Amino acid sequence: MPLLVSTYSVVALDPLTRDLGVAVQSRFLAVGAVVPWAKAGVGAIATQAYANTSFAPKALERLSAGQSPEDVIGSLIDEDSGSEFRQLGIVDATGRSAVHTGAKTEAWAGHRLGPGYAIQGNLLAGPEVVTAMEEDWLRASDALFPERLVAVLDAGEAVGGDRRGRQSAAVLVVRQGGGYGGFSDRYIDLRVDDHPEPIDELKRLLT
After folding, report:
1. pLDDT, tens digit, 9 for 90 and up, residues 55-105
2. How far apart are the first and last CA of the chain?
3. How many CB atoms lie within 10 A of CB 75?
């Protein structure tokens, strides 16, 4: 098995702008290079635990073809001999969501999901981490979508987060034509690869 990307993340759809995004923090070097994936008008994905990074491009292709997040996860898991070690969250451009937390994912591991969001984590301080993250996401907020995603990470960290500590964080938001010069959909793509306070540093970069 590769190194464990034990982490917690939120995958979501902005109900106002229809932007899609992922925010993630972990005691793992450069988590933003592994976990968050998204394509404007299609979906957003977090692939973590003993992450299978082939899941993400396959999932985006299948979402583009009209499959639901639940069906996409089902097919990916069926094809993967290591599925019991994987964790995967998906939200599509219509707000449908689905999550898989494998039975052999490092404890504590679990997830929460609802319309327009999926929250997942492994090797966490406890279930209170994903519960706090969900509560923060559902709380009425006038924050902009990228800031709202990072605030969800903050809520998880406040109750223990990754039980090994902190190291890296990232936020990815996609919007049609939102990238530099309008040539791509990468509206926000910020990564803190190695820092003692990665969420605080991510907030600084975002500001």
Report:
1. 999 999 999 999 999 999 999 999 999 999 999 999 999 999 999 999 999
2. 37
3. 14
Phi, psi values for residue 68, rounded to 5°: -75, 155
Residue 158 belongs to what H/E stretch? helix 145-158
CB 26 within 8 A of CB 168: yes
Give how far Cα 98 sits from Cα of 22, 143, 164, 182, Å. 14, 25, 27, 30
Q: How far apart are CA 40 and CA 32, in angstroms?
A: 18
* pTM for the full predicted model: 0.95
Sheet containing strand 186-192, strands side by side: 110-114, 117-121, 7-13, 20-26, 168-174, 186-192
Q: Which residues pair with 90 in a beta bridge?
A: 45, 98
The DSSP 8-state label assigned to residue 106 in this structure reads P
pLDDT per residue over 9-51, tens digit each? 999 999 999 999 999 999 999 999 999 999 999 999 999 999 9
Q: How far apart are CA 16 and CA 94, in angstroms?
A: 12
Asked if residue 114 lies in contact with residue 96, where contact means CB atoms within 8 angstroms, the answer is no
